[in-house]
Write a structure and sequence with these properties.
3 helices, 3-stranded antiparallel sheet, 6-stranded mixed sheet, 11 strands, 188 residues, alpha+beta, 23% helix
Length: 188
């Protein structure tokens, strides 16, 4: 009887190993979520952006340039930027904006503001591993600047008032837990 109990126990033990292995395989995540590793500006009609500046034309006249800040992520090993790396850039006296949108002058800005009144920031969450699972972004402008310009949840900047000089930053952050933050500078 001792042999039969040992054999039955061994068979139950082997069966449990097979069941656990099967259940473990079935519970394996086949498509793990892809988190953002950077926030990039996408300009479909600009072949060499961000390596070369992009110039926006309205009615045949140049209105503004979009450029990538060459100091962005200087000395960083990763492509993503977190609050800590932004703080280190601030401490190094390096401008923290990633992209700059610079109007050619106050006349061009006034013309643009009177005719279009809004500027769509074409930024998106990016990962080299594939499509980001939660690509939504949050946009912020300091509340004390709200009388001059505002930004909505789709990244559309509305110019509320014309000023001769403007230098404003829009903060863009990811919503997927990757804590990536960039700043887009708008200057005229």
């Amino acid at each position: 009887m001792k042999k039969s109990v040992i054999i039955i126990t061994a068979l139950i033990y082997l069966l449990s190993i097979v069941v656990v292995a099967f259940l473990g395989y079935a519970a394996e995540i086949k498509n793990p979520p892809i988190y953002a590793e950077d926030i990039i500006m996408v300009l479909d009609d600009a072949e060499n952006f961000p390596e070369e500046k992009y110039t926006y034309y309205y009615n045949g006249a140049p209105i503004y340039d979009v450029t990538l800040n060459p100091e962005w992520n200087k000395g960083e090993d990763s492509e993503s930027t977190t609050e800590e790396s932004i703080q280190s850039l601030i401490q190094q006296d390096v401008e923290v904006y990633k992209y700059r949108i610079k109007f050619y002058g106050s006349e061009e800005f006034e013309y643009y503001q009177e005719n279009l009144k809004t500027l769509k920031l074409n930024v998106e969450a990016y990962s080299p591993k594939g499509e980001v699972e939660n690509p939504s972004l949050s946009y912020y402008i300091d509340k004390d600047k709200a009388d001059i310009l505002t930004v909505n949840k789709e990244g559309v900047v509305t110019f509320n008032k014309v000023q001769e000089f403007g230098d404003y930053e829009v903060r863009v952050s990811t919503n997927d837990g990757s804590k990536i933050v960039i700043y887009v500078n708008i200057y005229w």
